[in-house]
């Protein structure tokens, strides 16, 4: 056994020895409601700062918006590579409490499950990063490079005041990043589709409803015609770049072998998905509507750009001879990925395989996350975190305790590998 292998085994053993502390930390994070909206991270940020202070870790606080706090800390020699541990403190609202089988802010452990809002997305993963960072400090683990902990308050509503805020101000840099977002146990996400959210407003001319369709111009019926054209985006034949095809194929394999209930969704990896999410128009039934607004969420595969989608929509909607406007909002990104052979991907994937004794490989995500911001700043990144995927953003969110512990072991071992290997 080499010195590096011995060091990795030592920290893995220490995670196992101290796993009750890790689980208590996770429970405590869940017990602090940090729903976004409203996005107030004061209480949870202070708790994390107090916890890490016990390991002699001092955090720098950066308030990016009212009561939204980004927390930063670093350790290591500083002369070498830098790895960023990244996680968000905010969770989606718990919703109708009567539909939960347990208190969403209990943080209870029952029958091997950690229960509560954020258990899977992503307080279990966040707890793992914080715990390992503090553990390294307590154990005086010598790191040849720099390990940075970046805890952000704003991911669930688009993330404007979290990761991109830090990166744009160069408060965070790095040679690689690990985000503890939910994933399957053996399959980190190393790529994701792009996002194209837009609002279409169609304009008509008001008039008395008893004279329609001879009088006025109905914005709602014109919007229906427009929606039919928009849905044509799904039918477009997208040419996936040759270098991306292996990632698409391994992601299809994942859907066949791991999340078997998702086999029927394989086409989304190569198609523009179209979800007409909201429609709002008219004033009352006997008035011809003069306006109708439709909000649409499209996810873009590799091989198509925002500009191409905009050109397609303009051409198709112009052909209808209607009056309209389009406004982009929300998530905006092109499809992006980190190559599987990149050192940060290898560090995570190899250590998953070593710790579980099973084959691990990176796959593509059909949604979006903070990973795109790191890639925009040329920082290779992947996502790996404990999760029970069917429960994310739903009622009765939970995660298996053994997944929390396993991921923390991977975080520790991967940091040592990444920082020691040039």
From TrEMBL:
EC number: 3.5.1.18
Catalytic activity: N-succinyl-(2S,6S)-2,6-diaminopimelate + H2O = (2S,6S)-2,6-diaminopimelate + succinate
Stretches that traverse the bilayer: none
Official protein name in the record: Probable succinyl-diaminopimelate desuccinylase
Pathway in which the depicted protein is active: Amino-acid biosynthesis; L-lysine biosynthesis via DAP pathway; LL-2,6-diaminopimelate from (S)-tetrahydrodipicolinate (succinylase route): step 3/3
GO MF entry, a single one: succinyl-diaminopimelate desuccinylase activity
One family name in Pfam for this protein: Peptidase_M20
Recorded superkingdom: Bacteria
Xref: SUPFAM superfamilies: Bacterial exopeptidase dimerisation domain, Zn-dependent exopeptidases
Domain Peptidase M20 dimerisation: 190-323
Protein family (similarity comment): Belongs to the peptidase M20A family.
Gene Ontology biological process terms, A to Z: lysine biosynthetic process via diaminopimelate
Required cofactor(s): Co(2+); Zn(2+)
Keywords: Cobalt, Hydrolase, Metal-binding, Zinc
């Amino acid at each position: 056994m080499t010195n590096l292998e011995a060091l990795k085994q030592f920290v893995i053993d220490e995670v196992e020895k101290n796993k009750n502390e890790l689980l208590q930390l996770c429970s405590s994070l869940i017990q602090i409601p940090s729903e976004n909206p409203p996005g107030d991270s004061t209480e949870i940020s202070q708790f994390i700062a107090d916890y890490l202070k016990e390991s002699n870790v001092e955090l720098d606080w950066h308030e990016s918006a009212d009561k939204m706090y980004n927390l930063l800390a670093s350790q290591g020699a500083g002369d070498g590579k830098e790895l960023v541990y990244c996680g968000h403190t905010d969770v989606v609202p718990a919703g109708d409490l009567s539909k939960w089988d347990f208190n969403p802010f209990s943080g209870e452990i029952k029958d091997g499950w950690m229960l509560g809002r954020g258990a899977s997305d992503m307080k279990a993963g966040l707890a793992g990063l914080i715990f390992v960072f503090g553990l390294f400090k307590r154990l005086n683990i010598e790191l040849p490079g720099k390990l940075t902990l970046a805890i952000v308050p704003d991911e669930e509503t688009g993330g404007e005041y979290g990761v991109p805020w830090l990166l744009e101000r160069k408060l965070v840099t790095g040679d690689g990043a690990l985000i503890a977002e939910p994933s399957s146990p053996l399959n980190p996400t190393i790529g994701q589709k792009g996002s194209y959210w837009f609002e279409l407003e169609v304009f008509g001319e008001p008039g008395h409803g008893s004279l329609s369709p001879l009088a006025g111009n109905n914005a709602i019926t014109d919007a229906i015609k427009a929606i039919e054209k928009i849905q044509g985006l799904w039918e477009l034949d997208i040419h996936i770049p040759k270098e991306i095809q292996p990632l698409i194929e391994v992601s299809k394999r994942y859907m066949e072998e791991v999340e078997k209930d998702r086999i029927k969704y394989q086409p989304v990896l190569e198609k523009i998905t179209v979800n007409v999410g909201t429609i709002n128009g008219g004033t009352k039934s006997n008035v011809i509507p003069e306006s109708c607004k439709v909000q649409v969420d499209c996810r873009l595969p590799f091989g198509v750009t925002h500009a191409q989608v905009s050109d397609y929509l303009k051409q198709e909607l112009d052909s209808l001879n209607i009056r309209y406007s389009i406004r982009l909002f929300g998530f905006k990104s092109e499809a992006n990925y980190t190559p599987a052979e990149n050192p940060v991907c290898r560090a995570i994937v190899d250590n998953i395989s070593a710790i579980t004794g099973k084959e691990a490989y990176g796959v593509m995500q059909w949604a979006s996350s903070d990973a795109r911001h790191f890639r925009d700043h040329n920082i290779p990144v992947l996502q790996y975190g404990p999760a029970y995927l069917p429960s994310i953003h739903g009622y009765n969110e939970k995660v298996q305790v053994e997944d929390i512990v396993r991921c923390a072991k991977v975080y520790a071992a991967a940091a040592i590998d990444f920082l020691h290997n040039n």
